[in-house]
User: Fold these one by one.
Assistant:
Number 1:
Amino acid sequence: MRHSRWISLTLTLLNEHYGISRKRQRYLVDRKDLWEPFLIFGIVAVLIVTLFPLMKTLLDQMIAVYAQMGAPEMVYAYFFMICSAFGFLVGLLVILSVFFFSKDLPLLMSLPLKPTEILSAKIALIVIDQTWISIVGLLFPYIYLGARIGLGWEYWISGFLILLSAQILPILFETIVILPLSRVIRFGKHRDFLLFSVSVLFVVAILLINVAITNTGVSGELTEETFREFLENPQNIILKGLSIYPPAIWAYRAVSAKGMVSLGWLACFLSVTAGGFLLTLFLANRFYLASYLELQDRHTRKSLLTRAELDHSIRRERSPVRALFIREWRYFLRIPAFAFNGIGNVLIFPILLILFGSTNKSLGSASSLGAIITNLESLRAYLLPLGTLVGILAGGMNLLSSTFLSREGRMLTELKTLPVSAKDILTAKYLHISILSEIGPLTAVIAMRILVQAAWGDLLGAFIGSSVCISFLNLIQMIVDIKRPMLDWDNPQKAMKQNLNGLFSVVLLFGFIAGCLGMGWLTQGFLSPLMMFALLVGVCALGHIPLIPITISSLDRFLLKDL
Amino acid sequence: MLEIRHLTKVFGKNFKAVDDLSLSVKKGEVFGFLGPNGAGKTTTIKMIVGLLKPNEGSISIGGKDIQKDTIAAKLKIGYVPDEPVMMEKIKGIEYLDFIADMYGVPLQKRRERVEKLTTAFKLRNALRDIVAGYSHGMKQKLSLVAALLHQPDLWILDEPLTGLDPESAFLLKKMMQNHTESGNTVFFSTHLMEIAEKLCDRIGIIHQGKLLFTGTIEELKKEKGEATLERVFLEVTGSEAQQMDFSYLDASE
């Protein structure tokens, strides 16, 4: 009885989370928007086709390196570790969102369910959701490595089971930390604090991943000392890189050992996973219900707001555009999913770029990645147009313009009842997005300075050029979001992550970059780098002339539509 | 003040939520809009405030067409939705300041009105708190205060008393009467017959999208010959509630 109740709960949560019934109704019964699944499959197919050669080359190189060390299965462990690290990063926000900000909790808590049932169903949902990270990041290396080397049945069984359970330990570990912490920090009431903590963690985690990757020996240098150590015991240096995350060692042992030894390590991995799960359920019983119920306490301050305090709070009149602009910032910063995704998206590429630069500076030109810098030296003449493209790539991947209206959700009702024009709304939103987008070009030029000591003129040109182009791309993405905004969401994560417009923006950005590179390649014989730059920026600048009125009129028409 | 002409709203292919509705509400009038659930009250109100676009017909607020002269028409309205929709991640005081900016309320005026209205509705001690922590009734009160900040000529209130405590409900009713006594207009929907009976100068009854009656309560009672507005309402809307048998609910197995 209880067993079937738990299954029913988990299936309902999954149905609600992925909108399965809604999609089935829309695509199969109403036969509406059938192009959407085809578009998704199309984009995934294009991504697979384009990324396959790159991934294959990378895997071939890695397999060659590790095969020389007598440990080709290390490739599996390497990707396992990367996926686990991403699981840690993304999982933290997902856990907080599912446990403490989810709107279904008041309903679930009122049902005759044990906290452990609710929690285990929710953890199952998170794990299934997070397993997509492993599928995207680990499935291909797992199959390719096994097929290429011709590994035995132990590899296939252990590798598959570890792939499926790879996300459980990161999630459990975080849950174990978060649940007791929830008794101290009231997560539901400190979202801003959480946002900044998660952002800091994000940056720290990227640094740790960078260090871990360097330590695995893939990109690092073998010094005399490590070489001697390697000759004495090759396994030690291999496992040293994995020691940052011990389950990666068990995973490596399970996929690399033979026969019963392999199954023994697999059992070890799975037992620790199961043990972690039981510990989480124990802590859930202990902390979760009490914490959650405390979060439901609503109370107002005892003291009245004095007239002086009121005057201090209301101290100036603002124009509608300025007031809307402030609203935009507040709305963005105070919803962790928006701020985290928005700031994260404009920061992730620049951070990687700067890390890439700084790491390689320290390694010197003899390192494998240092060679890329040498190649960049030969492209110095094209620094201005290439730097502009890097700036566009860094700032264009913001997901803010492609969801600028979708992020309103039900709040669009408020916006629509206000006596403000579409132009005012658009101006406020455009300014907000533009400011955030500028982080990309800014950090891109910093990276350019660190990496290749680009001239100040080139840096300024690349900054201005990429800003103009990003603005052009932002307008296109805004028009797309006006045409098909995703307003019917209950979880802000969905407005950004499950929004097809976001997917479109990625395709648009990469298509734009690829198009520009292609054009540059074709015209390199008769166009100087400066001309290429001028052409690129000129076209984007001129593109604003038709796009701005189109965006305003589209929004104007949209605001007249039914909500 | 409010002129609605041949208003029709069709959802999907042929579901008429509002069917050729015409009515006018004069200045200084409290107009109650009555009807069972799903009758078309909220749809009508949403068209009046510009949230929905009519398929046919027009709506004029103080001579301004909501479709053609949208901003000027909206400036004349103070709208309180049935479910408070507002930014929940900001403080109550920040929300009111934002709304005042939108309607261009002068600084001194907004300070005074925020102080008076929030004191009257006992919301002043919650203004520094994030709206998300408010109860439903507090959000409803904040929504009311926000709607009244710019001294609108026409109040459009969709089920305004739902969720309000008795004191706030009393205050609102008094404010509605004061508002119309100063020559302004109130248009509100309600399920509560006694409220309609006490407050409204005129009422309109809508059922299945059609306006079945407009006039005073006395006129309605005279026409139908019933003693209470509740019974008249049930008769006009063709309700079978009076004949229903609910004994099965308490029957032992």
Number 2:
Amino acid sequence: MAKATAQVIKKDRQRRVVLIPKPPKEAFDKNRPAGGLLQAQAVHLRHGLSRYVQRVARHLHRVGELLATDLSTLKTEGQISEYARQVTAILHMKTSKRPRK
Amino acid sequence: MSAGLDKLKHIVVLMMENRSFDHMLGALMATNPQIDGVDGTQQNPDTTGAMVPVQPLAEFQSQLDPDPNHHFAGVDLQIFGGAPPGNGRVANMQGFVKSYFQQQQNVGQSHKIMYYFTPQKLPVLTGLATQFALFNGWFASIPGPTICNRAFAHYGTSFGQVGMDIFEWKGPYLSIYQRVLLAGRTARIYYYDGPSSTMEIVNILNNQPKIFGTFDRFLADCQSGTLPDYSFVEPNYNDHDGDSEAEAASDQHPDHNVQHGEIFINKVYNAIFSNEDLWTSTALLVVYDEHGGIYDHVVPPDCTPDDDAFTASADQTETGAPFKFDRLGVRVPAVLVSPWVPKNVVIPGPNQPGGRTFDHASIPATVMKFILKDFDPNTLSPGDKQKFLGQSKREQAADTFLDLLSDNKQPDDDIPSFEVH
């Protein structure tokens, strides 16, 4: 995917050409045992996901409250605008700042 | 101000993985004695007591398997030769072979940690290093592994971390991306693609997902002239299937093929060069996060200790002694690419006359000094101003590198174009 995009970049200014060798196909091995860096990356990713779930859970709680709002109680422009602000923030995924540990 | 600095609009940092200076660039000393590399006389003792010299026998792949130890205690052994922490011990860079031996108890395999590449094998990295600026004295920020070293590039500190553990941001220092955004400027971390993801997960990805983009977007942004003021590029960290073809790891982390990393460095360089306006207004730093346990002969210098709150305990270092972040990690390759850099310039290291010392804290320090130089923090709220100006002791003490941009622009027809054949 990245390679395809790279190929469309124009090279119309003259430069000194230096040839570089093509790596062998055997260099690619997705069955290579993952090293410590990639294993650590997976741990960090899972941790990041757990934090995301915590945020989403807080989000869903708020979504439930907003869905349950009796719209007939929103009488003023101020009340409607506050409702709109909260819903828009959620629809734009702008979560409130999470509390610091 | 030089013409090069006057034109500067963008800084791009490409951070590769786990190779030492001597391993990748040391052989260049044969053609330029200013380069503090290797000449065959550097050596390390093995576990039989025999001395093992550096040799130009590095291969692209299948040689550094298992992955050499580069955790804090392992690097301590590599730097101090096995002398335990305490007063009077001397850093001598004599423990690399001993350290690698510990992993397989194989004397022959342990010698491979002393191998280095000939320049002919690395035409892109050595070509850029000899065309632009090579740093003799760029060191990893910590004598330890990836995550904590990369944190220095983002925050100017690792908040006391010396390992790969998860750590939650606890302030007070903002990432350089947050500071750039506070100043109303633009910044982005470009990771290769979804399957490769990023190494900047727990704090930056979790809290600032909008500053991330893929490498395809980097290429598109270069082409369209919409590159942010500051960009940090991550290589592909693993072999995986792409949409239309195999995507080979390009990070050069052992035991990934080094040639794929060469091609990736070239893609970043070529994307910038291909947009003439961008080429004229961009400084590209190619640097490695740490040495990956591979031999280098230059003793990492002492440095300004980090904040008192950021001391790693003896349990964390696993050496029996705490660490106050008062010594840099092992030296890594670093090359500054810009048409405004004089051709074939070598920035002297700490052991040379006029020597300068850099580490990854130099990256946020440089962005603050050059990209955000005209920003008036008094336009921020008092709270944001305090956050914006906050810099760790290490970042405050770090040297910056864009003074290397001169008044004279290298002509395009002398600039190398690397093409795969």
